[in-house]
Design a protein that fits this description.
19% strand, alpha/beta, two-stranded antiparallel ribbon, globular, 9-stranded mixed sheet, 11 strands
Length: 319
């Protein structure tokens, strides 16, 4: 089994990811940490506990972390995820409590234990990278417990929240820049699962409506139905769930190593991931900025049908 930790701002697509990570037989979900993002932190925490309850995983520790980005205010997305973040589905809300530790303390403790045991962990951030930036700068020794970071965020091309930027990097670009810098310094491999592939793992309404018979499958069906309704389509992407698929089945994802910077100013481009795809040496000769010092594996193509089937099969198992 692959030990993993998810860092979430649980809206509808994080729910897709949590249902998958909590139930796939090849993953050992060690913990889930929460940050403000799609909705405020209190709703993120309740949503996360609710989804894990539906997945039959009350054993997974959940901790609340950063309520706001490092510098700017939380800018939620109720038009995408509903006021409560779970599409206002009126799903029974969890009454469980969180781990008493702050998210970065839970991350620290689990990663230090992993380093001591040699069972390294894949960290899958699906939220603004605030918690991860705080972790790597506050407890850099915890990085010894990391096998890799596979984060949902950024793009080599398109934006979504703005014409230039993807939501997670736009929501806390300073944190994203810190994570890339710290991962480079601490020699932690990074994969960016961004908008270039995000929309390509689609579950149709017809497929979703085959799910049922358990809380997990019922919630998975409801999430796809709600996302389809919001986008006025006959199906919906599993969004963040694709990053979890990439950890389970990396052969379904194509990546290229590219230098990446995060735009921190820019009137129209704040939060953009500047992915340097130039390949000819001459392309750099007139560039006073040069290439970024850090390169990450950038997702460039995905087998959408393969990952959609992986998700459907897993969430349909039910518990």
């Amino acid at each position: 089994m692959k030990p993993v930790i998810l860092d979430v701002d649980t809206g509808l697509d994080d729910a897709c990811a949590l249902l998958l990570a909590a139930q796939h037989p090849e993953l050992d979900l060690k913990a889930v940490t929460c940050a403000g993002g799609n909705v405020g932190l209190d709703d993120v925490v309740i949503n996360t506990l609710t989804v894990l309850d539906a997945a039959g995983r009350p054993d997974v520790p959940v901790a609340a972390g950063a309520a706001a980005p490092l510098i700017q205010a939380v800018r939620p997305a109720p038009h995408i995820h509903g006021v409560d973040g779970l599409g206002d589905l009126a799903w029974p809300r969890s009454t469980r409590t969180t781990d008493p530790r702050h998210a970065i303390e839970l991350l620290r403790d689990v990663l230090r234990a992993a380093a001591a045991s040699g069972e390294l962990i894949t960290l899958i951030p699906l939220a603004p990278l605030t918690n991860i930036a705080l972790l790597l700068r506050t407890y850099p020794d915890a990085a010894a417990g990391l096998r890799e970071i596979v984060f949902m965020g950024g793009s080599a091309g398109i934006g979504n929240v703005t014409a230039a930027a993807e939501f997670n990097t736009w929501a806390d670009p300073e944190a994203a820049a810190i994570v890339l810098a710290a991962a480079d310094e601490l020699e932690v491999p990074v994969t960016m699962y961004g908008l270039d592939v995000f929309y390509d793992v689609v579950v149709t309404l017809e497929q979703a409506r085959t799910l049922g018979g358990s809380q997990s499958a019922d919630l998975a069906r409801a999430v796809i139905e709600k996302r389809s309704e919001l986008y006025q389509a006959d199906g919906a992407t599993i969004g963040d769930g694709g990053a979890v698929c990439a950890v389970i089945d990396p052969a379904g994802l194509e990546t290229e190593s590219y230098p990446v910077r995060i735009e921190l100013s820019g009137s129209w481009s704040r939060g953009r991931t500047i992915v340097d795809t130039r390949v000819r040496p001459g392309d750099l000769s007139g560039d006073p900025l040069g290439q970024a010092a850090r390169s990450v594996q950038v997702a460039t193509a995905v087998d959408g049908k393969r990952y959609a089937e992986l998700w459907l099969t897993t969430v349909g198992m039910g518990l």
